[in-house]
Amino acid sequence: MRFGKNQEIRFGTTNGAYSLVTDREHYDSQITLTDYEAELVVGHFGANNIHVGRVQLNPQTAAKPFRHYPDGTSIELNLVYPKEEKTELRLYISSKSGFKPEGGEIWFVFLRNGDIWIGSLTESEWRKEAADIKKDENDDLYQNTIYDPDPILTQKIKEREVYVRDRELAIKRMEMAGFSCEYDEEHKLFISRFSRKNYLEAHHLIPIGLQAKFTTALDSLDNIFCLCPYCHRAVHHAEESKARKILEKLAEKRPVLETYRLDIHDLFNLYAVEEIV
User: Fold this and answer.
1) How far apart are CA 9 and CA 24, in angstroms?
2) pTM
3) Of 176, 228, 235, 268, which sits 20 to 30 A from 17 (CA to CA)?
């Protein structure tokens, strides 16, 4: 799978790929590179510089240098085309060489500043780090302000920008939605003691915390969705299949993804709920 905006923020590049290590790959100490993984690695080393056949026939050519994430340590791993047709690209992983991820871990490879990097994380670490990138530490204040006329000021919290959001846009979207949950209008809501309307929370489908990665404003009427508290928490914290279900339905309501030049897989990546294979 190709890197998305989350990986661009974390690794400083979109020129990368990641996938799940299978138990068989760990046991056999080899990973077959497919799709963009193979394209990226071949593009870096050059197809004519990758050994064809068994490693033992030419160990010097088979060994390729990588930088190990995160500390940048130089390691060598064997990379070969096992067959003359060059239809399969195989990377040999090795504890002795410094890289042998467990089955079920996410392994990744990326190019940055002329170097090729390689690394691995557990799936939970991978998803948590990606989810933390879009975390909006000011969301509770924003939700409260929808029912309070005081404006939210731009400020920095822990060196992160908190972007101004217009409460009037959120209120207008709630009015347009008939003060019902946009994921499921049948969801039961309670009455706000302040507005005397159904209580809803405003959710930016493309997370406002990623504004620096977009030239188009994310605090827009189309990008704001009204959700009941249950659905709002679920889209951020529910297990992946549940979150994907909510995100997909919301994305179908308005052409938000087209506006920001994304597809549904990009959206799942932003929330760290993509299916990793």
Assistant:
1) 31
2) 0.86
3) 235
